[in-house]
Amino acid sequence: MEMLVSAPYTGYVYPNETIIPWTLLIAIYPYLTGLVAGAFTVSSMHHAFGMERFKPVARFALLTSLSCMLFVPLPLILHLGHPERAMNSMITPHLSSAFAMFGFFAAFYVVLLALECWFVFRADNVARAKSSTGLIRAFYRALTLWSDDVSVKAREYDRKWLMALAIIGIPGAHGLHGYVGFVYGSLKSRAWWESDLMPVVFIFSAVISGMALCIVLYVIACQMRRIKIDFACLKGMAYVLWGFMLFTLLLEALEFANIVYKGKEGIEIIMEYVRERLFVRLFIVQFGLGAVLPIAIIGTMIARDTRGRHFVVGLMISSVLVLISVFMMRWNVVIGGQEISKTMKGLLTYIPPLLGRQGILAGTAVMIAPFLLLWLLTQIFPPWGDMSREELK
Amino acid sequence: MPLHISRLLLLLGAFLILAVIARNYVLDPSYYQFGDYRGDAVVEIAAGSPQYKGAAYCQMCHGERHTEWTAGVHRSVKCEVCHGPARAHPADGPLPKPEDTIKLCTVCHEAMPGRPDAQPQIVIAEHPVKHDGALQCLTCHNPHSPKIGGEEEPVEATAAVTPPAAETAAPVQISKRMVVLTTPCTPCHGADGRNSALSAALAGRERAVLDRKLQEYRSGALQHPVMNAVTKSLSDEDIADLAEHYASLPGGPTQ
Amino acid sequence: MTRNPSKDKSGRRAFLRTAGKALAGAIGGGALLAKSAAQDDHIAGAAAAKSFPTEDYDWTEHRWAYGIDATRCIGCLRCVEACKAENGVAEDAHHFRTWVERYVYLEGEEKARVDSHSDPQNIAASGSESEYRFDNRYQDAKVTKAFFVPKMCNQCQHPSCVQVCPVGATFRTEDGVVLIDQTYCIGCEYCVQACPYGARYFNEETRTSDKCNWCYHRITKGLLPACVEVCPVGARIFGDRNDPSSPINEFIDNNRINVLKPETGNAPTCFYVGIDKEVS
After folding, report:
1. Is residue B80 included in any domain, yes or no?
2. A194-223 per-position pLDDT tens digit
3. Which residue in A has a C-alpha nearest to residue C277's C-alpha?
4. Which chains neighbour C (Cβ–Cβ under 8 Å, 3 or more pairs)?
5. Which of A47, A344, B222, C278 is most exposed, with the fewest beta carbons within 10 Å of its own?
6. CB burial string B148-173: b at 16+ within 10 A, e below
């Protein structure tokens, strides 16, 4: 049983607002779906758009997307008052609600990702089935649906399915994540959330977070497996990341600028909040360290044609900063919106508890779990075949 | 079509069909009855049992009290406001009688900015005289019909007063100082000193007795929460003058 | 022409597969049809009954509305306590179906000072979180204007909360009350976020959303909501707009009426008299 902690506040807030409804877990949830969408985009650059440059990272990115996707429902289940009734939203979806779409988007996307992984790894699985014995053989045989057809015709079907899935998956991913942005952006009860730009901001920051994650994981994986990093692939990801980051920063800045410029009723409390409580979280971490700095680093490296170790280090630092910044963005939106009272006369302070279903420990576990699963998946379905087999120089 | 594709399609198809069948199996039959919600929910919510029963319910057993209450200014304050919801009463025992009336009554009657002027309000520590906060409202007020002096205009410390029962008594002329001094006395004793519904009649009693009584209340030799409070700040001269005043009023209690 | 045996085999297999899928589809479709037929029966049954939810109550005959006269409210908070006692609301300072706000303008200040029951000073004045009272912090201040405003769920005609519920656990009845199905709500709290008035809260006991429902269990029996029942000064008015003699119609017809946050487009059915621009 969690202890009920009411949020301290200043000014005037509605009495019911002193218990903050959407917690740390609800800030983590869009972060996870963002990683899913971003990693899928990286993978689709090869599988859908046929860019050979991204082949080394494509299968790995796909597994990353799947691992994160399988854990996406977890923060929501932990938050719900009645997780055992969660299926109600699929049994009787209330179609006027954006949330009602979650069940279908998520289910559809899990199936799509699983299918795409299935196709991508099918040939490998058939080979593994042939070369294993006993239980493992049975496992791989079942996984391949007891078919060992790797003829040219079969592979042609595979390729077509893969392309179709990858193409459908892009709007699918952006729908899965964009609806979250819509949930916030369409809510007229909170001035901090209500914005037409919100779904777009969410989608773009999702893409950069997924890309940054793929960069970080790719570099780490190469180090762990002592594989030479494919520089063209890495640089390609850096270019795409950089481009998306510029646009994301523009969108986020535009959203904030709109609020300030319009100066509607309640602007005083918003500005008080931004100036005092949000200053470090928003300007220094999210915008400064998390957007301007990585853009500057990567931009400089591109301009000076930096290569080798320097490039990798610079890119890694930038990617980690982006990952932190995107989480900060989710926090600033979800928690920030609730810290500004609906009365527009008061501010609350959310302090996440350490223990409990919605505490810091639970949140950390939810964040770590996908990567443990990813490690497991890379053991069962090694994606390394595409990567260069040369030893680290 | 290659084998694995057709098997995959079969698998997906089977899953979809199973999902639809399961959905229809678990769907509550009353859902969609009136709209996009479970129809039975309305019945369930409406079937709750009321906890507050209303004054008519109380009247069934407490007829006299109810009559007294409807005749008084508190007729807009329902029984359960002070006694709490009836719930299963009388089956589960009597309802609480409020003990701490200072806490309860002042929730409505404490003078507070924001309260409309039509609401009778008091400054707690000064009503009816300055006291230390321990003077319970029940000392003077009947909670079921709280206005003192009955339901006609409140008896005020005015220079001229017509006693309720006597039509021929001459108006009493008193000095400004006496008006001030007798202010705390009037609510209970009446401006004419004859009201004995709440307290002793003073009019026409022996001056020396009144003087002694006031001294004893002031010193605490006689204990009465109101009298101790009102006499605390009286000087000897004040006591003498008050005794003189009431002794001189045309006498006898009205009841 | 020689027949290819393996092709024959795959042809038979393909036929069996297709037939199997078709059969499964037919079973599934049949189940669906059967279920929806049962639902149709249910709907027909209710319509035939023409009385809901009890034998003496037909919700199509009533159109409930609520009036609040903020010029009369004395901030005694008997309504807050009565509501909690009637509806089993958590007895703390953070969950309310109805509450009262105090607005005080001090001399020289343009903005009102607002406080309510979560305020620590008010909690101290009442003695505990389960009793409610306004403290008298302004008794010695130079107050230019002050008043009390009761608040509760506005039972909107276009409720944001109903729109956003993913499962249909909250809905508006034919007689104009927004209810919550406590056995169906999943506790996602989207509705709590969507309400512009802060009327909804998370009920820790039922682990679902909760809010004022105008004491639906009372009004369907001809009683008044508990808060209206106990208000000693007539600041709360409740009635049926379809009943010409109802006090609510007199209230609406004889006063200049306001609603809270009209810009939301929610069209509340709680009508206010005596609030000013600071009240949101």
Report:
1. no
2. 999 999 999 999 999 999 999 999 999 999
3. A265
4. A, B
5. B222
6. bbeeeeebebeeebebeeeeeeeebe
